[in-house]
Amino acid sequence: MEFRHKLKELRQQQDLTLRKLGEKAGVSYSILNAIENGRINPSEDVVLALAAALKVRDRAELLALAGHNSSQ
């Protein structure tokens, strides 16, 4: 699964709009929109901010889906 699809799935499971998720994560709507539409790949910092906002336990999985290798 691609990061953008996983992000959308997690966001929708929590009934969050892109704007609400952006507020929680400190990431702009335009960046989130571009990520979900596959126009950009998120930085490691953005992935970690989204993981925290979405209360994701396995941050390493999200980092891997976004193409980042990390020991988080």
Automatic annotation (TrEMBL):
One term under GO cellular component: cytosol
Domain HTH cro/C1-type: start-end pairs: 7-62
Keywords: DNA-binding
Domain of life (superkingdom): Bacteria
InterPro entries membership: Cro/C1-type_HTH, Lambda_DNA-bd_dom_sf, TransReg_Diox_bact_type
GO molecular function: DNA binding; DNA-binding transcription factor activity
Protein name: Helix-turn-helix transcriptional regulator
UniProt organism field: Paenibacillus sedimenti
